[in-house]
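[step 3/7] fold_predict: job queued, chain A
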Amino acid sequence: MTPPTRRTWSRRGRTPVINVRGRSQRRISIAALACYRPGRRSRLIYRLKHHTDHKQPGRRSLAWTDYRDLLIAAHHQLNAPITLVWDNLNVHRDARLRAFIDGCDWLTVFYLPTYAPDLNPVECVWSVLRRTSQANIAFTDPDHLRRTLRHGLRIVQYRSDIIDGCLTATGLTPPTSRLKPQ
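[step 4/7] structure written:
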């Protein structure tokens, strides 16, 4: 993974150059939900998947079963019905996932317009993650990247004000500031 550069320097008149070792074909996929309930703190529920066998043909991203499992886990953690606003990723529109959604009375799904990352609060979370925990780091191996991602996502999870900011940036009404015990 090429590290995102947040800040760099060099002598005046010289272009800064960042040397990075060769690229790996391994892949790490993340799925996340930015959730809120009126009167409670905002939450981030995520799943990380490391695709270790990069030389075998097949899927190197999250499957519909991974999204199904994320939704079930979110339902158990939130202990409430879920209204889900999703982008138009092809896996989100998979017929098997739609059949699962249709069979759940606790799940209502709305889809965002075709290309609207500014309406998706999770895109803001990815931006925060890239600018904070991933900035200016050349990862030594996939485990280093995975540890850094988990640490950055935990920081976002425990800082509900960051999630509130991401929700507000999309035009959603942030939860009330008065917190109730969960």
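[step 5/7] annotate
The helical segments are 64-78, 95-103, 121-131, 142-158, 160-169.
Strands lie at 27-35, 43-51, 82-86, 107-111.
exit 0
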